[in-house]
Specification:
Length: 231
């Protein structure tokens, strides 16, 4: 049936956006690469939502989704971090080692996606940081650089911070930390209180601080997840 192909078509658009983003990143157009991640994240949300609504689940769709995510949320953010490394002050003789550490994001993203496909515990919530969330954080870096936000620029343009960031976020991707997902079974407020709190708070922060709010939103995501699973 035609409806079976609709989610897969959206997934392919996610992949196409990721490929374009990589081209933009290698051409030094990091802000366009960041927008490609944003587009891919929307498409990734839509393909899952459409698959649930249309009941169009398939094994090929599951595998295709992971392959698309590997490009859009694994390779593309790694290339963005690598390009930022090259723009930051080089630290000879360590520069080549530090610069290439950007691709730890791609390696750990692959591990994360492979783990997700066989982990039956992650049907409703996540264990470890989802690759789209990590990529959206990285997508905020070029936008913040364009805005010349002095506070964040001191960190983003520091090669040692970028190295620690790449390694740390990679480890979060494969960690055993339980995190809530935005998969709504129903729209009832009582059953999705923390999800609505996260979405509402994120919108307010984006209005107030624009893309500079992304790191704050990620911290809020961890906090709300902690409340959900620990308290």
């Amino acid at each position: 049936m035609m409806k079976q192909h609709i989610p897969n078509t959206v997934t392919c658009l996610n992949l196409f956006s990721g490929c374009l983003g990589i081209v933009f990143a290698f051409n030094g157009e990091l802000h366009f690469a960041a927008y490609a991640i944003l587009i891919s994240a929307v498409l990734d949300f839509l393909d899952g939502m459409l698959a649930r609504w249309l009941k169009a689940y398939s094994e090929i769709g599951k595998q295709l989704d992971s392959l698309a995510d590997m490009v859009s949320f694994g390779v593309l953010p790694s290339v963005i971090i690598y390009q930022i490394f090259l723009l930051s002050p080089q630290t000879a003789p360590y520069s080549s080692f530090l610069n290439y550490s950007a691709f730890l994001i791609a390696v750990f993203s692959a591990l994360r996606l492979a783990k997700f496909n066989i982990d039956t515990r992650q049907t409703e919530n996540f264990i470890g940081l989802p690759t789209p969330a990590n990529s959206l954080l990285i997508a905020s870096f070029p936008i913040i650089m364009e805005q010349n936000n002095r506070f964040f620029m001191n960190y983003i343009m520091n090669p040692y911070f970028l190295f620690i960031f790449s390694l740390g976020m990679g480890l979060l991707l494969v960690s055993e930390i339980p995190l809530i997902s935005l998969k709504f079974k129903t729209l009832k407020f009582s059953e999705n209180l923390l999800r609505y709190a996260l979405i509402g708070s994120s919108l307010i922060l984006l209005i107030l601080f624009q893309f500079a709010a992304t790191p704050i939103i990620l911290c809020l995501y961890f906090l709300i997840s902690f409340i959900q699973f620990r308290i």
